[in-house]
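Please study the protein below:
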Amino acid sequence: SSLPAAPRRSPRALRRHGSLLAQYSSLLESYTEGEIRQLISALVERYSQAMNSGAHELPLFPRAGSRRKRARARHKPCALKELEVSVSELGLGYESDETVLFRYCSGTCEAAVRSYDLSLKSMRSRRKIKKEKIRARPCCRPLAYDDDVSFLDAYNRYYTVNELSAKECGCV
């Protein structure tokens, strides 16, 4: 209480700066043209030294860690994707060299979490629900399927497979 009060900095007003670009442009306006040229030449020199020393990455920017990359990859929204594969690669037991366009659902459903999912997760963590195979979060699944797929196998037999390829995806 006997110490003098430290000077306090006022909080930044986001409305005053508008955007990140506005913040950087106001920052750069405070430098002279000579200082900016000096900064750019130092960065270019640092980059060329790193490339000559065998480094393959820009030393100017921090490298995204694998944890951050995984976090970004986990939060891709549920979407329809496609892959061209042979009928044999589908794993349904048919031998055929014919190719089909296999559409599938991939992604996360974080935005679709409901009260049910939160309560179910809580009951599992409190061990009220034990040893049952249940998911406490929505899954990215097909909501509708493409038309049936027909093909000839390696023995010239004709087959039709239904509900093979997704037409529309959603969180279920």
In short: The domain at 75-171 is CATH 2.10.90.10 (Cystine Knot Cytokines, subunit B).
